[in-house]
Amino acid sequence: MTPEPLSGSQFTPDMWILSLALILVHLPSTCFQPATFPDSVSCSQNLGCRLLERDVVCTPGEAMPAPQQLPRGWPSAPTLQLTQLKTSTTLQCKHEQDCLPCVQVTLQLGLLGAKHNGGSGRNGMQPRRHDGNTEEFRRTHVLLSAQTYASSRCVAVEIWLPHTHDWVNSTLGSLQFDCFPVALSGELHVTAFIRSLYQSTPVLKDTHYGPNCTWLKAKAIRLCQVPRLEIFVKPEEVVLQVLDFPVGQHFDLWLYLNQTREPKGLGDPRLLTQPENVSIPVSQVFSCLCLQVWTKVKDSPRTYLCPFENDAAALARVWAQSRLELNVFGGTLSCSFSSPCDLPGELVPCWSGGLSACHPLHPKLRLALISHEPQEFPGLTPHPNICVQVKSNGRTYRQRCLQDDPVEKLLLLWKTQDSQGNPSFRVLEQDTWVPIAQAASTRNGFLEEALQNDLQSGECSQVWHGKDNEAGKIWACSLEKYCRTHWVLVWMVTLLSVCSLLFVLLLKKEALKGWLRLLKEDYGSRGALLGRHVLILYSPDHAGFEHLVSSLAAALTQLQLAVSLELWSRGKLGSLGPMQWLHAQRQQVLQEGGSIVLLFSPGAVASCAEWLGWEEKGTLSHIDPNSTFLASLNCVLPDFLAGKAKDRYVVACFEELLHVDKIPALFRSVPVYPLPSQVFSFLLALAGPRVGHEQRSRLRRHAVWISKSLERAVQECQKKDTS
Which of 207, 240, 588, 683 would suit a FRET pair with 719, their CA atoms being 20 to 30 Å apart? Predict the structure, then answer.
């Protein structure tokens, strides 16, 4: 509602003072950033408003004297108050695709304090009359300020009430101002207040955060108009397609590894002037590989994309490129882990006792995994049997030992004390800490007293000491001197065992004859498989399946085959990594004319399906990203795709665990042998084409023995899998 113009004679004293205050705050604003677009104000129907000044200097000041101190005749009436301040992001556009973000300010207004003077006017107010007007308009000036780090701007808005307003209602309506410019991802501090002559008024403040290019409406902002990027994974490379290129714009594309220390760029930024394809070798595609795209404008915002964060194959490449180094300086063990990406995990010292698994020394003895930074274990003394493992999500990905050959006949002794100072002893037995009185290695307490005496006399070497008695200390004690005292018993048991074996063989003459016949044939020294090299690649689905694979490999070694198996090479895998170990073994096998056996299982099929992104889905809930089988797909697939797999690769499976039809068709381009029914054909394929009639007969007899052995191993594997 627009008010009628007022003549000079109609100005009241309060209006003159308000006008004077507005003139004092209205200064030139050349030092502030001018508005990019025209400003506008609007208000609800029961209010009137207009924009007075676009650029003024405004600071909330002190209120004028209180109403009881005003001259006689000044009105005592309700005044406007700001009750709420809201900000929102909107766009101001010159053209459809050329917009800038700005902040829209919405103010809620209310009416404060109506004093009833006993007059006859409406709602108890005594109206004032001036030259025929029944009531005067209530006018208020609102100041809106917007500040950033580098600039400041303020506008003045006039608000008035119509003469028909219901003075009892304390809710007036809202005022909307369009709008203050805001930078992308910037901050804008908005302040609103009324410069009242009668009393102090509240100052409303809000901090508004500008949008970034992920905002739904950001496509209309020119700086956020970047090409669309799509990723396509191929066997040997990853192709980045740059699509929907904005007309007339140039962009920079930067590939980098997102590391905590600092991003590591894969070359300089690449200039994009038109839609094109960018190829990235698979060997450089890691889980932390990211892209940045931005326009060729100073300080323009950047669009980030990290498409391989959850890619299992990319994570496997990171682990394959990781390294763990151990060094000893001044009696302190130092570990250094390096990898292309930051990996979650921890460093855990463990004790290697020979054939048994490396057992963690103490639950509290572990460090958070930090790349490219030397780390030391407090209280740990370097010992030839100590190794360090890199664990993540309950899995061991790396292991390095101070020595390849650990010292045998050592017993780990863990001594702790309770709050009363009473000692207790535990020993490490079968990868578990057990009380010394219950340990079989101490012969039901036979060595308990002797070990404690050695501990007190200093014959045991300290491996680790904790910070308190509860953590305790760990000692390594030698059992060699105790073993010598019982050599007579050992020889007696051995002799008795040999005699019993000979007696059983004599009772079974036919079995004895068969055994002697095998020795006579000497299939090891003069057999068809003598000296041939075989590399077996498999997926470690579970412990039972690994035992089954080990049984097959052991049977092949008895035929004098040189077998390379991940399960038998964990030490080298820990130092080299799956990818380097695989490359070395593959090159050696192919140079010597050997064979590479792809042993498929449900886990291997699932790995292929998920790694290659086929329509088939894996049957396992998880895939070990450090699996040698998964890493081998980088080397194996090119041979199969190029048709070079014949005479190099042999594909097999255990028919009771996986049907042949479940093997991906790509790998069925070479002969597939279900085991154990086709063990003989499998052995012929490993022997090669030059096999004579006599050698074939011997292989057939050995195939019968191997087939029965595998049948029992498959049954045991099925029992362990179901349990």
Answer: 683
